[in-house]
Design a protein that fits this description.
It contains two helices and four strands; from the N terminus they run E-H-E-E-H-E. The chain is an alpha/beta fold. A four-stranded parallel sheet has the order 3-2-1-4, with helices on one face. Helix 1 links the parallel strand 1 (2-7) and strand 2 (27-33). The chain starts with a strand and ends in a 14-residue tail after the last strand. The relative contact order is 0.28.
Length: 86
């Protein structure tokens, strides 16, 4: 069995990836997201769900410990893409 973590698991693309992989018995899914309430997938009984922030190193390090593979939803900084931050 392979361990796979999905970072940003409530994202639009990640939701589709979860639906594809959730029933694969050879994959143990870990879902990492900031707000569990935003997770809309329904068949998650065999998934480990971790609420955290990828921008917080300690939380991310703990979540990826023991994972063999990872899938990353694209992330953006507050304020959006291409905006200057002062």
């Amino acid at each position: 069995m392979e361990n796979l973590i999905i970072l940003g698991a409530s994202g639009d693309i990640a939701k589709h990836v979860i639906d594809i992989l959730v029933d694969k018995t050879e994959i143990k899914l870990t879902l990492f997201l900031r707000d569990m309430d935003r997770l809309t997938n329904t068949n998650l009984l065999n998934c480990r769900v971790i609420e955290g922030d990828v921008l917080k190193y300690d939380q991310l390090k703990a979540a990826i410990n023991g994972q063999g593979y990872g899938v990353c939803q694209s992330f953006r900084q507050p304020g959006g893409y291409g905006e200057k931050h002062h």
